[in-house]
Specification:
Blueprint (H helix, E strand, L loop, with lengths): L24 H7 L5 H29 L9 H13 L26 H13 L5 H10 L9 H28 L1 H11 L5
Helix pairs in contact: 4-5, 4-6, 5-6, 6-7
Length: about 200
């Protein structure tokens, strides 16, 4: 039997942060001990209804927190999805597939990444004739993230990331043709019926 990790309860400072307090079952049973069976059944139904009403109040507070209108037809479903997104990994929506392994990917260092590409492109934007190599040499001389790094290493990382960014853009363009979300969005934009 596999164990499922459940996200810890979120901490709230308002009534959502307080549990629903119900008198103990034992104290209720002792208080109404000796009442006829039909009355006891009604008491237990009322206890269950009270707890349900308290939970509905909490759901309404939660819906307000997430700016979801429960009076809409899909309001409760949207709230359920929102709660599931916070508790169940499979409901989360991400822009990139998770890595298969934990930890730093092979070949990564503190240099590189989108920040490096942006920094070099900013330098090249301010001085259009500057080469990538010259921009890297300037970055390693400036105080900041890349100070004292190897300029040739920065240049190599720049081209690696630049290729990766171009690849992601190409995948995005390809996804626009085949991805079900993009297909659906195109249908909405063009006024076609969405299934």
């Amino acid at each position: 039997m596999s164990r499922h990790k459940i996200a810890p309860a979120k901490r709230f400072d308002d009534p959502l942060g307080e549990p629903i307090f119900r008198q103990s079952i034992l104290s209720i049973a002792l208080t109404f001990h000796g009442h006829p069976e039909p009355e006891m059944a009604a008491i237990w139904r009322e206890v269950e209804q009270w707890v349900l009403n308290e939970k509905i109040k909490k759901l309404q507070l939660l819906a307000r927190r997430y700016d979801i209108d429960l009076t809409e037809g899909s309001g409760f479903a949207r709230l359920a999805f929102r709660i599931a997104e916070e508790c169940i990994e499979g409901f989360r929506v991400v822009d990139q597939r998770p890595r298969a392994r934990k930890g730093r990917p092979a070949g990564s260092t503190k240099v590189g990444g989108l920040d490096l590409v942006k920094a070099i492109e900013r330098l090249r934007g301010s001085e259009p004739k500057i080469s990538v190599s010259s921009a890297c040499k300037r970055l390693v001389r400036r105080p900041g993230r890349w100070k004292n790094e190897s300029a040739s290493s920065l240049e190599t990382r720049y081209y690696e990331w630049f290729r990766q960014i171009k690849k992601m853009i190409a995948q995005g363009k390809q996804a626009q043709e085949t991805d079900p979300l993009f297909v659906r969005l195109r249908q909405v934009v063009t006024g076609q019926s969405v299934r």
